[in-house]
Amino acid sequence: MALLETANLHAAYGQTRVLHGISFSMEEGTITTLLGANGAGKTTTLRALCGMVRTEGEVRFGGQRIDGRATEDIVRLGIAHVPDGRGTFVNLTTEENLRLGAYTRKDRAAIDADLERVYGYFPRLGERRAQQAGTLSGGEQQMLAVSRALMLRPRLMLLDEPSFGLAPLIVRELFGILRALNQKEHVSMLLVEQNAAMALDLADHAYLIETGRVVLSGTSGEIKSNDAVRRSYLGY
Amino acid sequence: MEPFIHQVLAGLATGGIYASVALALVMIYQATHLVNFAQGELAMFSTYIAWSLINAGMPYWGAFFLTVGLSFVLGVVIERVVIRPVENSPVLAVVVVFIALLVILNSVTGWIYTFTIKTFPSPFPGQPLFGNKYMSSHEIGAIGVTLVVLLLLYVFFRFTPLGLAMRAAAQNPESSRLVGIRVGWMLALGWGLAAAIGSVAGMMVAPIVFLDPNMMGGVLLYAFAAALVGGIDNPAGAVFGGFLVGVLENVLGAFVIGNELKLAVALVLIIGVLTVRPSGLFGKVHVTRV
Fold this sequence. Notes:
The complex is a heterodimer. By secondary structure, chain A is α/β, with parallel strands linked by helices. Chain A has helices at residues 42-49, 71-76, 94-101, 108-121, 123-127, 138-150, 168-185, 196-202, 220-225, 227-234, and strands at residues 4-13, 16-26, 31-35, 54-61, 64-65, 79-82, 156-160, 188-193, 205-210, 213-219. Chain A is globular and about 45 Å long.
């Protein structure tokens, strides 16, 4: 059974329709990426999965319908969203940001242990645990956003352009950690990226989205070797 | 010198009450960016509840804590029933609702209890504590109660997960939803807490100004001035502002401008702060790119 599955998903902001019947699915434990140009509807797809925009159509998580539910309830099912723009609580400390990630959990001892585990993955956050999160650099805030999502102990992580605005070295470091999280902790990930080459290297499966529709899907290898994709999105 | 010290200390006592109401204003402001003009009348209504309970034969502290609890519930209910429907409306619509609440609470109280001034008991002894000649027991007690309230709030917001969630919801609702915080309920909780704080302020000020439906009018103005002086988005600033305004009001009233013009101190402060330093002493300066 697929971990996440959408069927004929539509979404609109007011009068502007953005998604025109997106259908895709992903298996537990895998990394799937949604590729596409600016304005294709990638971010909106992630927002639709979390109930942050009005949608029509079906979304199933672990076989259960979740479309139409409130964002707060979807989070409780184990879906952690690393939003576009990082969603930092700028006036709170790094550690408070992380503790908020575990807001829905009640196992206090395990939360403390997870904090240390996250600091293990991102030592720089550990050094800055008492610092106001708004003063962190862009890369650190992105790491914070990923870490905050991890604090939920999610079954599925939705990552919205984690490479955006980061130096190439930081991006490589971040993607390395994402791969480790997927392999060691079996966190499933749905990744939205403009950096198609990096996304395809990380992901198992890929979907190509154009103007709110899926136009191509396959394993990362298949997509990578597709001529049209190579020319339009990989640039060689 | 002695009368001066006396006025400063008495100012601290009323200042603590302004600080509490200012804190209630700041709490709502942080979450909604609006000043709740009905905060004072809400506190006044709570004080009448306490008066009824005490008159029905309940011991003072029993009535005190029951009133705080009832005020909390009242605050939550008002947010859910009255404020929630206008949550996304234009600012003016919400302000009109606040003013309507003010007028309704004021007149309903007058209708139930009449506008006759009543005495309200103090839980503290009539003779000055420790034989000091500067402050009455009630003044010392009121400062003590205020400090306890402030301490409890500080601990709640600083050290509990719920307090953290409330702060998060106030500053970033979207991210808060993404970590599972029920933002709407955090707002309601904020209203409940603000109403509870207000009720304590009402019960502490009533023995001084006596109980009548208009008793909080002046207090609300001073509290608003206090919140502005401290910076309307800064809780610690609001508390500092409260004590400052209390002392200024008393000292200026006693030695400079006379008691009749005391309220003008608050108005001058409000206008002064808004024109010279709108973010207050400790508030954040907001810069928006246009």
